[in-house]
Specification:
This protein is α/β, with parallel strands linked by helices. It folds into two domains: 3-204, P-loop containing nucleotide triphosphate hydrolases (Rossmann fold), CATH 3.40.50.300; 220-286, Alpha-Beta Plaits. 34% of the residues lie in helices and 31% in strands. The protein is built from ten helices and 14 strands. The protein has helices at 43-50, 92-102, 108-117, 131-145, 161-177, 189-192, 213-219, 227-233, 259-267, 277-286, and strands at residues 3-14, 17-28, 32-36, 58-63, 66-67, 77-80, 149-153, 181-186, 198-203, 206-212, 220-226, 239-245, 248-254, 271-274. Strand 1 (3-14) and strand 2 form a beta hairpin. The chain starts with a strand and ends in a 6-residue tail after the last helix.
């Protein structure tokens, strides 16, 4: 696969605070990525560097193999920010018209269809919209731009569950018809688990993990049993989190557990359950990515 964007050894500090540290990230074409991290993990700083909004202190960003120069906005990229800085007096339709001028692949038929799908009034002014409706305007820009690289920073803020599901459904339907590289930055992990193909987990400005979602699903387990049995069973396995309660323990494991091992665990009184992505993320972060 061709590489759309590659970040190598990126560093960015604000005073004594390291917002991004020695970060490597690679986005290949026609893939949906998730950038996962708690608030304050450095996600927005990273995205702003990737899209030319701020400069890294050191490191390189390449787009299509060519270095991104100072102040240069990457070509064929649409970046939908968490906080939009639209003119409050502008109407929804005017925001879409402005956006269309910057994206050569813009699809007006699709944009108008999305306005109807999300029940937006095109003549309403941006300052009259709720936070959720404002997010939808940005999401429509991202979808209708058909940009080869589309980046969303917290795209569903302010949306209720039904609207969030509708957005993800429309996103995947259009992605199937018009493949491109999409990066979704969010802390709402479970909601994107059916959407993204690969994830980067960011904590304290550093990438702790990069893996395919399918690998995480098939290799993450919650084990519960006696302290002694768990210690014995998990020896040599990648334990990302462990907690003891009296004579029992629970352990989050990021490793393969085959059928023979499941039978062995059952004989040892250990229960083996799958670990939802949200819990995997929480345990991985809480354990700071520590692997025993």
């Amino acid at each position: 696969m061709n590489v759309m964007m590659e970040c190598t050894n990126l560093n960015k500090s604000y005073g004594r605070t390291d917002a991004v540290r020695q970060l490597d990230l690679r986005l290949e074409e026609n893939t949906v990525y998730g950038l996962l991290g708690r608030n304050g993990a450095g996600k927005t700083t990273l995205l702003n560097m990737m899209t030319g909004g701020i400069f890294p202190d050191s490191g390189t960003i390449k787009v299509g193999g060519a270095p991104l120069g100072p102040g240069e906005t990457p070509k064929d990229t649409c970046y939908i920010r968490e906080k939009n800085f639209h003119f409050g007096g502008a109407k929804v339709i005017e925001i879409l018209q402005i956006a269309s001028a910057f994206h050569p692949n813009w699809d007006w038929d699709f944009a108008n269809e999305l306005v109807r799908t999300f029940k937006l009034n095109p003549n309403k002014k941006m300052r009259q919209l709720s936070r959720g409706m404002e997010s939808l305007v940005g999401n429509i820009v991202g979808l209708a731009s058909r940009a080869p690289l589309t980046i969303y920073d917290e795209p569903v803020l302010g949306l209720d569950v039904l609207m969030r599901e509708k957005f993800y459904s429309v996103l995947m339907e259009d992605y199937a018809l018009n493949p491109r590289t999409i990066l979704l930055s969010t802390h709402l992990i479970d909601e994107i688990s059916k959407v993204v193909e690969r994830v980067y987990i960011l904590e304290a400005g550093n990438i702790l993990l990069h893996d395919d979602v399918d690998n995480i699903r098939t290799q993450s387990f919650m084990l519960t049993g006696s302290n002694e049995a768990l210690d014995q069973f998990t020896r040599g396995k990648r334990v990302i989190y462990k907690e003891s309660y009296g004579k029992g323990s629970l352990a989050a494991v990021y490793d393969r557990i085959g059928e023979d091992e499941r039978l062995q665990a059952s004989k040892m009184g250990i229960s083996v359950d799958g670990l939802p992505l949200q819990k995997f993320f929480a345990y991985f972060i809480e354990g700071s990515g520590h692997v025993e």
